[in-house]
Amino acid sequence: MLYRENGQFKASYRADQQIFPIAQDRYFILAVVLAAFLLPLVPGLVTDYFFQAILLPFVIMSLAALGVNILVGYCGQISLGSAAFMAVGAYGAYNFFVRIDGMPLIPALLLGGLCATAFGILFGLPSLRVKGLYLAVATLAAQFFSDWMFLRIKWLTNDSPSGSVSAAGLQVFDIPIDTPQAKYWLCLSFLVVTALLAKNLVRGAIGREWMAIRDMDVAAAVIGIRPMYAKLSAFAVSSFIVGVAGGLWAFVYLGTWEPAAFNVDISFRLLFMVIIGGLGSIMGSFFGAAFIVILPIVLSQMLPALAGLVGIEISTAGISHAEFIIFGALIVWFLIVEPHGLARLWSTGKQKLRLWPFPH
Questions:
Q1: Dihedral sign, CA of 249, 238, 294, 314?
Q2: Which of these ranges, 53-67, 229-243, 325-339, has the smallest mean pLDDT?
Q3: Cα separation, 215 vs 226, whole angstroms
Q4: What span, in angstroms and rounded, lies between the C-alpha atoms of 146 and 7?
Q5: How far apart are the C-alpha atoms of 143 and 325, rounded to whole Å?
Q6: Which of 9, 50, 72, 154 is most buried (CB neighbours < 10 A)?
Q7: How far, in Å, are 267, 295, 329, 337 from residue 306 at the CA level?
């Protein structure tokens, strides 16, 4: 009864086409966003460790998964080079930040995203000729090229022999970003603004072109959609968002990083986030990031406690191996039970609430 639409009449096209047409959805999302921003203000509720080790990776990876979902979920172009786009965004922002005196942090991150955009368009060109696994292999080349580039071209790493660089003295509007709470607020602000823009983008004309290319590119070309423009624009938007996420990951979360921090494992994790959360769903990006980032931490805390209840002692290595086994089994189980991702379960639950407690 709490999720009924009775009495919610649409008197204009604008009201009918708003992002959240159901009032309960608007109130829920607004409450979640407000709670997320007010969380650091509640004393003693969340520790600095929780912000630094759990919330920061979750927020940044949600942003990166959002960018990957635009390319893979909405446009149907499989990419295994997401970590390379993150690396280009991170090192691009670093070069703007250290080489231009007085460069503010936010413009540096956005310029790093533009560098990742150019890099993504370059390695998105093969999508005009190949698709599927062949495109995945072509984008995987971006990963190896970025590793070589940041290790061999010393200018990109400010002449660092190992490619290791660091960013210190971060400020936004003269406010120092040196506490876990301030870092969390900065990343959350990027995430909220980007999610809102992405939600509007996929509902517009360009979003419909992406989905038409994803469903059947030949039919999309027949009805007048330009495949080259649609595919490369998806690569550009996705690479920009992933590049900004890479800048936040390097500047805010890591502080000091090297090319190995953006290895191919990050690309696979982002792809798993999108698949588990739900392809072609903005909400699925958050669900997938929560599953991949938070679940291993929960398992590492729960397994020793459960083993202690039954009188079994498990070594640290055994706990680590058990985490991988349970984590992989849960991924397979979710893909079998709901191949459309956790976002479909969320959508199904909302549809049932619209009828509850009546059978139809």
A1: negative
A2: 325-339
A3: 14
A4: 55
A5: 27
A6: 72
A7: 32, 16, 18, 26
Q: Are 247 and 109 in contact (CB under 8 A)?
A: yes
Instruction: For residue 275, give the amino acid letter.
Output: I
d(CA 137, CA 178): 40
Instruction: Please write the tens of the pLDDT for every residue from 196-242.
Output: 999 999 988 999 999 999 988 889 989 988 989 999 999 999 999 99
The encoded tokens of residue 263 equal 């290895």
Going from the N-terminus, what domains does the chain have, and what CATH number goes with each?
Answer: 49-355 (1.10.3470)
Whether omega before 357 lies within 30 degrees of 0, making that bond cis, reads yes
Helix 23-38 with 180-203: angle, nearest 10 deg: 160
Residue indicated by tokens 């690309």: 267
What DSSP string runs through 224-260? T--HHHHHHHHHHHHHHHHHHHHHHIIIIIISEE-GG
- Those residues whose C-beta lies under 8 Å from the C-beta of residue 232, and which sit 6 or more positions away, are 121, 124, 125, 127, 128
- In the three-class reduction of DSSP (H, G, I as helix; E, B as strand; rest coil), residue 172 is classed as strand
